[in-house]
Amino acid sequence: MDQKDLRRVRAALGLRGSDVSARAGLSHAKLSNLERGAVLASPEELSSIAAALKALTSKRETRKARDAVAAFAAEVGWTI
Question: Which residue stretches of the chain are H helix?
Answer without folding.
Answer: 5-12, 17-24, 28-36, 43-60, 63-76
